[in-house]
Design brief:
Layout lengths: L3 H9 L3 H13 L3 H13 L7 H13 L3 H13 L7 H13 L3 H13 L7 H13 L3 H13 L7 H12 L4 H13 L2 H12 L11 H6 L1
Helix pairs in contact: 1-2, 2-3, 3-4, 4-5, 5-6, 6-7, 7-8, 8-9, 9-10, 9-11, 10-11, 10-12
Length: 220
């Protein structure tokens, strides 16, 4: 009997029709992974006619069967009105569902919803909590947003040292917001704050980069 992995092999070989033919009967048995893959095929028009409504339906089925990545996609489609009537509150609800399952992108998306009041009431303190959870798992945009919140005192007490740590981590991966904020932040920090920030940052630096000087990078 063919498996989801057999479909993935066909997908990687760009035989999308074969992948679909493998996944369809598996999805009919309620397999969340196969349902999510079919959602991706319809969303991108791979081996099928692009169809956002069909994509949403497969993502929704997958999400209801416990796939957090699909739940995030359902949230995004509700938020944008893609394949389903736009419903920001439903979008936020699905983002939360996926976020609680540990999906970093959903945690970021839910934090953005809380920051901007999209489908939920604005709650900057809760937004910071979700940015932090995603940031701690290595999600670069969340690291940048978390650093920005610490730098500006949004939803959390102003803390230039914490701001430096998170902005530095995000700036290593080219996140524009982090790079811009970090430059100004470093100029405003005292020598003692910079030293403390470097010590705290060192706990997050990968073992392969033990001697990297982020202050030098930030100041040019």
């Amino acid at each position: 009997m063919l498996s989801v992995q057999d479909g993935e092999k066909a997908y990687l070989e760009k035989d999308f029709i074969k992948a679909r033919e493998i996944w369809e009967p598996i999805a009919e048995r309620g397999d969340a992974e196969a349902e999510a893959w079919l959602g991706a095929l319809y969303a991108n028009g791979l081996g099928v006619q692009q169809d956002a409504t069909q994509a949403f339906e497969f993502y929704r089925r997958s999400a209801e069967h416990g796939n957090p990545l699909a739940a995030n996609n359902v949230g995004a489609m509700y938020a944008k009105g893609d394949g389903v009537a736009r419903d920001p509150s439903q979008g936020a609800s699905w983002f939360l569902r996926a976020a609680e399952s540990g999906d970093a992108l959903a945690q970021f998306n839910y934090a953005v919803a809380l920051t901007k009041g999209i489908g939920v009431e604005i709650d900057l303190a809760q937004a910071v909590n979700w940015y932090r959870r995603a940031a701690e798992s290595g999600h670069y945009p969340s690291q940048a947003r978390l650093g920005y919140c610490y730098a500006k005192g949004l939803g959390v007490a102003n803390d230039p040292i914490e701001a430096f740590v998170w902005l530095s981590l995000a700036s290593r991966h080219g996140v524009g917001l982090a790079m811009t904020e970090l430059e100004g932040l470093v100029k405003s920090m005292s020598g003692e704050q910079k030293a403390t920030a470097q010590q705290r940052l060192s706990r997050w630096v990968a073992a392969s980069e033990p001697g990297e000087d982020f202050l030098a990078k930030a100041t040019g």
